[in-house]
Amino acid sequence: MGLLPNPFRAIVIGSSGTIGEAFMHLLENNPQCSSVVGIHRYSQHPIDYQNLESIKICVDALTSEAPFQLIINTIGILHTGDWMPEKRLADVNAEQLEELMRINAIGPALTIKYFSKLMDPAHSLMVTLSAKVGSIEDNRLGGWYSYRASKAALNMLIKTASIEWARTKPNSALIAMHPGTVNSRLSKPFRGEQIGRPASDAVADMFKVIEGIQKEDSGSFVTYAGEKLPW
User: Is the pTM of this model over 0.85?
Assistant: First the structure.
């Protein structure tokens, strides 16, 4: 039996994205989930990582609805209309590095900081979507400098916070999860429609892993199939 209780209450951050929407649909149709709150840039209590103060404001607004037993953060960015992942060192630029660090590492770190106050001290878990390309040990192809670096930073932040949680939140788990290649806006320029899976399939697999997470798994970097990834 995993850490997630029955029934449980959930929050999905980034619920307007492809994976976030799929998590919302899955949880809304899960009889064990008594309620799920979706958060995005235009929700009732919005979060926008371009405005980092919005994270604390959102948490303050949700405090009266706490506690929650499951929090899933699906927010992440790989490319924009202005730039794509760098193929070589000559393509690296400060603006792109700063943007990806803000969205992929700083925003999620502050989300862990503030949203942890909404978690059930008796039994709860927080899952933040990361990416296998953020693994330093697994980097064999190079390229994608900003995305790799921002996800590696995210992984370190999650691992470090999990060590503190072992003392302050002993009945909770903090997990970094790789969703695999999903057919989404993020993966579309990289043949995501051909090689990616439907978001509903990816989310179903990830939730199976979430259901089995124990508090001893806190600080793990896992795939949608439950495999441990090297940092």
Answer: yes
Q: What CATH architecture applies to the domain 8-223?
A: 3-Layer(aba) Sandwich (3.40)
Tokens of 36: 């799920």
In this structure, what token pair is assigned to residue 77?
Answer: 């960015």
Q: How far is CA 190 from CA 8, 44, 183, 186, 196, in A?
A: 36, 33, 10, 8, 9
End-to-end Cα separation, the chain, in angstroms? 26
Q: Look up residue 28 and give its DSSP letter.
A: H
- Reported as a single tens digit per residue, the pLDDT across 122-161 is 999 999 999 999 999 999 999 999 999 999 999 999 999 9
In whole angstroms, how far apart are CA 56 and each of 49, 116, 132, 226?
11, 11, 29, 31
Q: What share of the chain is helix, strand, coil (3-state, %, to 5)?
A: 45, 15, 40
Task: Report long-range pairs for 82-91 (Cβ below 8 Å, ≥24 apart).
Answer: 84/189, 85/143, 85/144, 85/145, 85/146, 85/147, 86/143, 86/144, 86/145, 86/146, 87/143, 88/143, 89/145, 91/145
CB atoms within 10 A of CB 89: 9
Say if residue 52 is exposed, middle or buried (CB neighbours under 10 Å; 0-12, 13-18, 19+). middle
Q: Record the tokens describing residue 148, joined without a space.
A: 């790799």
* Low-confidence residues in the chain, pLDDT < 70: 1, 184-195
**3-class DSSP state for residue 68?**
strand
Give the pLDDT confidence score for residue 192 in this predicted structure: 43
d(CA 35, CA 9): 5
